[in-house]
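@channel anyone free to eyeball this complex?
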Amino acid sequence: MKIIVDAFGGDNAPLEIIKGALLAKEEYGVDIILTGKENVIKDTAKQNNIGLSSVEIVNADSVIAMDEEPGEILKSKSDSSMAVGMKLLANGGGDGFISAGNSGAICVGATMIVKRIKGIKRPGFAAVLPHFNDGCFMLCDCGANVDCRPEMLKQFARMSSIYMEKVMNINNPRVGLANIGTEPHKGTELQHTAYELISASGLNFIGNAEGRQLPQGVCDVVICDGFSGNLILKTYEGVAKSVMGEIKKLFSKNLKNKLAAGIVYSDLKGLKNKFDYHEYGGAPIMGCAKPVFKAHGSAKANTIKNAIRLTKNYIDANVIETISAEL
Amino acid sequence: MKIIVDAFGGDNAPLEIIKGALLAKEEYGVDIILTGKENVIKDTAKQNNIGLSSVEIVNADSVIAMDEEPGEILKSKSDSSMAVGMKLLANGGGDGFISAGNSGAICVGATMIVKRIKGIKRPGFAAVLPHFNDGCFMLCDCGANVDCRPEMLKQFARMSSIYMEKVMNINNPRVGLANIGTEPHKGTELQHTAYELISASGLNFIGNAEGRQLPQGVCDVVICDGFSGNLILKTYEGVAKSVMGEIKKLFSKNLKNKLAAGIVYSDLKGLKNKFDYHEYGGAPIMGCAKPVFKAHGSAKANTIKNAIRLTKNYIDANVIETISAEL
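replying in thread with the prediction:
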């Protein structure tokens, strides 16, 4: 199995990406293709005493920046490490693709370069988030489509269920529709129709899920339009990070508090890991004809390694074939 | 000044509501009218050794439940403690109204019974949330209007700015538009047009604000449609509460951890208070012709007391007159 990795995606590229890819190669036995400026990749590896003899490098002359217009992946940045990697994937040069770069560009590239699974209206950006009942849930769409039709939400529900069952090993995943109340009449026209469609889909639909229920782990899949989903995702991560930051400040405030921190150190670390998105690694672009994963923009080596593991599991579990068959 | 309080709104009614109203009377010198079943109010007070001689009671035969259809406030529940209180307010029987009851019903009642300020298209439900930079921000709309037009968002921005300036004493409040990226082209048609309108409004508009920025306190006012706003509000509260719950569990896990908790006790308590919505008390229905406040559904006496203080400040600061004048 060959995984293509965008060596220039994310805040810590290329060093952390290279390190993560090599860790994954060693741990999971996958072959790696790195895309990006070959000389920079080689120099970075050399400076850090990393041997690259076991990985393939495909040169790409540019990089699409985090704040660049996503459509540029098809235009001025068609020679970027992301675009080159996606073309390679589309042409059969690898089995899956990972980038920690510009989310919008990944979605555009997934749709326009790698293409959709036949019958899928629009791919959905599907992040996996930890909840506070010892598990995680998939939130889809997290921002690929700001405007959605009900039929798209139904497809997101089906695809996400397949992912959670096959990759995350959750039996008969519970699907919830993000909404402002639990009663079926809540929300806009989009939610009303999506509620009916998902109810009739044969999926394990538990109905509407409110924002406050998500951290409690009431469902394994949460469906929404990309605008709401992106606000939920970032608020969720932002608040968790802020509270943990306050806890950290509290424990380093003075000697007395540092002493207390020492006492609960391992438990605190466990709590921190519990909602560390680096552990969950990647967000698949669901509905794409080949496996495309987005790793967190601040991905470090371990995040990339985990994203590669998820991509491998995704391929091994035949997620795309299952989606095709169920459509 | 006379504040009308729905004695039967919220999970802890009527006892906590009665207690909170009396605390506010004592502390802020306001007159109180309680609405609801008179005999139950009197019995509850008697059983708890609370003297009611200083407050007025206006009888109301029913209660609108938390999960009831909001429109019922105008129909089968037009004799409820909430409807009776709002009619009293509309007819000049008091200067402001507070309820911890059904949010949807409060919005419907505010619009249909108390009515809007002339020129206001739709009232907005405006919660005040703590952020992690020692302050708070107003989020409007949090659920009164699931579908919004750009002009409504502009009005929410103006009204919320006036509130934060006059009631929360924030000079020249920074206004942000909730969005999925900071660039002006992000979001749907609604955000694009609202962005232009708010930019040209003369308000202190800082542009788009992403979900992850909200807990950092990047703005004092966050504007959005009621669907997104409700998801943000509840996700925000839910995640903060869940993380704090985990911390609490951690510290009561064993004797060793309990010892550590003892060491940092006062700091932990400070942190807990920092994002305790009970301190912020109430969410005004902005755009209503008279002051209508929603207190949190789980309001205890202290929450009600704080909501009454905010209502008093709102009246003293002539927020409604200022909104009228600026339209």
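from a first look: Chain B touches chain A through 57 residues (CB under 8 Å).
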